Amino acid sequence: MIGKAALLEAIAGTNRGILASESDKQAILAAIAQLEDRNPTPRPLEAIHLLDGDWRLIYTSSRGILGIDQFPLLKLGQVYQCIRAPEAKLYNIAEVSGVPYLDGIVSVVASFRAVSDRRVDVKFERSLIGFQRWVDYQSPSYFIQQLESERKFVAIDFKIENREQQGWLDVTYLDEDLRIGRGNEGSVFVLTKN
User: Fold this and answer.
1) What is the pTM of this model?
2) What's the average model confidence in pLDDT over 179-193?
3) Cα 34 to chain center, whole Å?
4) CB 111 within 8 A of CB 40
5) pLDDT of 131-156, one tens digit each?
6) Which residue segment(s) compose the domain that 157 sits in?
7) Closest by Cα among 153, 149, 150, 148 to 136
8) Residue 135's CB: how many other CB atoms inside 10 A?
9) What was the pLDDT predicted at 35?
10) 61 phi and psi, to 5 degrees?
11) Of 14-18, 56-60, 133-137, which one has max mean pLDDT?
12) DSSP for 102-132, written as a single string
């Protein structure tokens, strides 16, 4: 698909958006809009077999995610959004590197509820920040198993008590290996199936 190839080419070299210039951002947004117009899955929240799984972030305009890379001595590594559609759960996992042997992990667990064919309301429930070695981080899937086992971690691990609606996400494009979403803060997310 020419549109998909154009988007991937526009994203290449931007380090998930960290290195994107204003002209890069405009080209990426134009390529995203073209793909969204040709979304092969018009009702993405009903396509659980496509939506479910571990997704790796390849581009975002989210200042919250990209801001991790702005801290001194820290570099943003891979970022994942793991969707467990049957349980209506999602796990955002950011790998962080910097000081040798002290690679970190920043994770947020959330539940979601479909409110239309393509929009979900998201409620954040738990956050965990720690060193990968101390939480036995091996992969996103393994880490999620550990989170769900109610294991106590040597990390900053806390429940997010505010149960009000905390955000929403539109899935605007979905195929077997690419997902595009737009969030309530105006951010775009482009992810590939891991």
Assistant:
1) 0.90
2) 95
3) 21
4) no
5) 898 888 999 999 999 888 877 787 88
6) 2-193
7) 153
8) 21
9) 94
10) -105, 5
11) 56-60
12) --EEEEEEEEEEE-SSSEEEEEEEEEEEEET
Q: Which residue has the tokens 């380090």?
A: 15
CATH code of residue 10: 2.40.128
CA dist list (Å): 113 to 10, 130, 165, 167, 184: 32, 28, 10, 11, 15
For residue 75, is pLDDT > 90?
no
What pairs with residue 129 in β-bridges? 106, 156
- Residue written as tokens 């939480």? 135
User: Which residue intervals of 42-121 are DSSP H helices?
Assistant: 48-51, 63-66
User: How many independent structural domains does the chain possess?
Assistant: 1
- CA-derived radius of gyration, the chain: 17
For residue 161, the one-letter residue type is: E
For residue 181, CA distances in Å to 35, 134, 137, 175 come to 12, 32, 27, 12
